[in-house]
Specification:
The complex is a heterodimer of chains A (305) and B (448). Chain A has helices spanning 7-32, 35-63, 71-93, 99-114, 130-180, 194-201, 205-238, 246-264, 273-296. Chain A has 305 residues and is mostly helical. Among the domains of chain A are: 1-123; 162-194, no CATH class. Chain A starts with 6 loop residues before the first helix and ends in a 9-residue tail after the last helix. Chain B has 448 residues and is an alpha+beta fold. Chain B contains nine helices and 19 strands. In chain B, the strands form four sheets. In chain B, strands 4, 9, 10, 11, 16 and 17 form a six-stranded antiparallel sheet that branches. In chain B, helix 5 packs antiparallel against helix 7 and helix 7 runs antiparallel to helix 8. Chain B starts with a helix and ends with a helix. At the A-B interface, helix 7 and helix 8 of A face helix 2, strand 6, strand 7, strand 10 and strand 17 of B. Bound molecules: protoporphyrin IX containing FE (HEM). Protoporphyrin IX containing FE sits between chains B (19, 22, 25, 81, 84-85, 88, 92-93, 96-97, 162, 165-166, 169, 388, 392, 395, 423-424) and A (259, 262-263, 265-266).
């Protein structure tokens, strides 16, 4: 392999391959609950994340340039952190069944990041700051936590709406049964088929809600700290800690949404279904802040100079 | 108070003390914030008419969406949020988070359990108290109409987390208000060799030299000119009148008498020689991009469009290389207010502008763009941010829960009734509640 790929590219390929195969395995586990698939997926998730962190270190070793200060580097960290946070949650709260979604998203964001790889570039003067080095990992980690809460909220909503449909179907089947005495019920989803077994193996709605809360509780303080360190950096580089730059403002917007989430979550009637929707909207705003602002709106933060 | 005023006051408290109202204010705050991300801020009115349909542009300007963060809408919504925060603090947060010790209907609380024990009531009560105290609960007993209740609080101190977070938000708001009231900021351009007095701060700054470094870097998409460093060497004096040398670079501002000076931009100004029939007449003052130079005795002038650090000799076009090589200036000839066309003129080349007049870009001078800012609220904003963060961590990572316990005689032994509430509903505590009750059951039943 003396003329082969550089070590960072090998690690990148390992990471993407692990995520894709791991995602398939965990999707399989999601549907089938075969423990082997879970173990395979979990192992690949860990291998992928470790390969990614090793890749970032390798890039730093090769170039001696902090590897997170362009969109490629930050998307690499984002996908690695999403998987890492998910793995911690999965071990603590038996959440492996959701891993297929997280790994698929991580693979997608990482692959998208690779398209922004311009090679090795020294950072522009404003990025040559201590604060830049702490700010970016903190913010990206908060985004990663929000990705995990997004996936769990999506599961909450799926479970909620599937249950509701089935609730309606069961009522319908009961009335059909009453009308036609048997026969017709076989064509409708009954309560004891595969789907209900599968639903029963998911955490309950309140359990999923608590997990969404716990992951937002990781993301929100990090986002707050990220905005604070960003403000400190802005103060050094541009003279004012807050300049209403589109990027900082978009981050404030996401922060407001998650603050609203936290407040609604204190109300019994809003906890669960509605807060899960707020978490979904919050993640959309995070993606807008992270990618949309860089790509569509130019400002001090835009990576494209 | 008349009853009308009293009703108004009651309505105000009810509205501003409602958390859904507060969240609605958040939503409006969020939407206004987002408008400023989408609509370019602080541009000339014509820019909005150029990018939007006329009615939309008109609406943007009418509603101050071109400067939304300094509009009354924005300041007003934050004021409403702070008002709501104050009302909620006293009407809702303090009563909800620091509830009085009161008896409850145990079966009505979703997290409840009963344990039957064969031992006498008094000893059971003592064991229950010890059980909770050993686990770090704060245990308090109260007598209500002859029934003794025990209240066991877990992480009781953390009930103040919300108050801390809210206080942090208020401190940040106070810090930003200080800047509005007493702070100032601005930008100044200083030519090499020039001395400028900064308005309001009174400091004088002389630019000795400006340096920049830009490196060409080969990337996958071609050569990129990457700025590496911008440095201003200045001599400055503050209130004490003593001149001192300073170096200002990006990320390394300087501070004179509490005002900070930052490296924010740089550029080139050009002095033009004016000639008539080939004979030198005068040398202009340094012109910045966009400045014009009037040609005497005519209705013509030239506009200095921009400085081009290097002109590509082949294409005669500006090169993307921002380093000085073959410098030129882009000029436009203006006749009675309308442009007659633009040209790229190398430094020291003379261009004919009619009627025997000609101009020659004679010298270029670098200038540094400094941003300055005096902000007496920075420390408060910093403290507020820290307090807010502590409040968030306390609120999210410490779960205050309260056990309500009563021990009643039951046959020969005792019946222990337990219920628990938390500040975040019941689901989040269900597992821990179950586990604690089981441990208590084992302890009481085995302990006898
Ligand atoms: C309009 C302004 C605000 C009002 C009226 C308000 C009101 C409230 C209320 C009533 C609660 C629930 C207390 C309870 O149920 O025990 C609460 C919780 C909380 N608030 Fe605010 N708040 C406001 C702004 C903020 C801001 C700007 C932050 C900063 C992020 C914040 C952080 C929190 C936190 C962390 C909690 C606890 C949530 C939890 O424990 O799950 N609040 N707030």
């Amino acid at each position: 392999m003396t003329h082969g790929m550089p070590v960072d590219e090998i690690l990148l390929v390992i990471a993407i391959a692990s995520y894709i195969i791991g995602a398939l395995a965990l999707f399989g586990f999601f549907l089938s609950r075969v423990p082997f698939l879970r173990n395979l997926g979990a192992t690949l998730a860990i291998i992928g994340a470790v390969a990614q962190f090793a890749q970032l270190v390798a890039r730093y070793e090769i170039s001696h340039i902090w590897p997170l200060l362009n969109l490629y580097g930050s998307l690499s960290l984002f996908s690695a952190m999403s998987v890492a946070i998910f793995v911690i949650f999965a071990f603590r709260y038996r959440l492996w069944f959701a891993g297929g979604f997280v790994l698929a998203l991580a693979a997608m964001f990482l692959t998208y990041g690779v398209t922004w790889n311009e090679g090795v570039m020294p950072p522009v003067p404003s990025l040559q700051s201590y604060w830049a080095k702490v700010h970016v990992p903190i913010v990206v980690t908060s985004y990663a936590a929000f990705l995990v809460s997004f996936v769990i909220s999506a599961l909450y909503l799926t479970r909620y709406y599937v249950e509701r449909r089935r609730g309606a179907a069961m009522m319908l089947s009961a009335s059909v049964e009453a009308d036609a005495s048997g026969g017709a019920t076989a064509t409708l989803a009954g309560p004891n088929d595969g789907v209900s077994g599968w639903l029963a193996s998911l955490p309950t709605l309140p359990q999923l809600d608590v997990l969404v809360y716990r992951s937002v509780a990781v993301g929100l303080p990090l986002l707050t700290l990220g905005i604070i360190t960003g403000a400190m950096w802005a103060k050094e580089a541009w003279g004012a800690y807050w300049q209403w730059d589109p990027k900082e403002t978009a981050a404030l917007f996401s922060w407001i949404i998650y603050a609203a989430y936290m407040h609604l979550h204190t109300r019994n009637q809003w906890r669960g279904l509605r807060t899960s929707w707020v978490s979904v909207i919050g993640f959309i705003s995070i993606i807008f802040c992270y990618l949309g602002v860089n790509i569509w709106i130019s400002g001090l933060h835009s990576y494209k100079v | 108070m008349t009853s009308a005023v009293r009703n108004l006051y009651a309505d105000f408290i009810r509205t501003f003390g409602n958390i859904l109202f507060a969240v609605s204010l958040f939503v409006i705050w969020g939407i206004l914030t987002l408008i400023g991300v989408i609509v370019d801020q602080g541009k000339a009115p014509s820019a909005y008419y150029a990018s939007y349909a006329a009615p939309v542009a008109r609406a943007i300007l009418r509603l101050d969406f071109n400067n939304v963060y300094h509009s009354w809408w924005y300041v007003g919504i934050i004021a409403l949020i702070l008002t709501s925060l104050a009302v909620c603090t006293f009407k809702r947060v303090i009563p909800a988070r620091l509830p009085a010790l009161r008896p409850v209907k145990i079966e009505a609380i979703p997290l409840h359990a009963t344990i039957d024990v064969a031992s006498p009531v008094e000893s059971v009560r003592g064991s229950v108290e010890r059980f909770f105290a050993q686990r770090g609960f704060l245990v308090r007993n109260r007598d209500f109409g002859g029934v003794e209740w025990s209240f066991a609080d877990k992480q009781n101190w953390a009930r103040r987390g919300v108050l801390i977070a809210h206080l942090g938000f208020v401190i940040i708001a106070a810090g930003t208000t200080l800047y509005w009231a007493f702070g100032f900021s601005g930008v100044t351009a200083i030519l090499t060799g020039q001395t400028v007095t900064i308005p309001r701060s009174g400091a004088t700054i002389h630019l000795d030299r400006f340096r920049y470094r830009i490196d060409p870097i080969a990337t996958k998409t071609g050569i990129v000119y990457q700025p590496i460093d911008y440095v201003s060497h200045v001599t400055a004096s503050g209130k004490d009148g003593v001149a001192r040398p300073y170096t200002i670079r990006v990320n390394h501002p300087i501070n004179i008498d509490g005002t900070n000076y930052y490296q924010s931009s740089y550029g080139f100004a050009v002095r033009f020689a004016l000639l008539h029939n080939g004979r030198f007449v005068s040398l202009s003052a340094p012109l910045y991009a966009g400045d014009t130079l009037k040609i005497p005795d005519t209705s013509r002038s030239i506009e200095f469009l921009r400085f081009v650090p290097t002109m590509d000799p082949q294409t005669k076009m500006p090169s993307p290389d921002p380093r000085i090589g073959n410098p030129a200036v882009a000029l436009s000839l203006i006749q009675s207010g309308t442009s007659e066309g633009a040209a790229l003129v190398l430094m020291h080349r003379t261009v004919d502008v009619g009627d025997g007049w000609s101009v020659r870009p004679q010298r270029y001078l670098m200038f540094t763009g400094l941003q300055y800012r005096y902000d007496p609220g920075v420390a408060l904003v910093g403290i507020g941010a820290f307090v807010l963060l502590v409040g968030l961590i306390v609120s999210f990572y410490f779960l205050p829960a309260r056990f309500y316990v009563r021990v009643d005689p039951h046959g020969d032994g005792a019946k222990v009734g337990l219920a628990a509430t938390t500040v975040k509903g019941y689901d989040i505590f269900a597992e821990e509640f179950g586990a604690l009750v089981e441990r208590l059951r084992t302890a009481l039943q085995s302990g006898g």
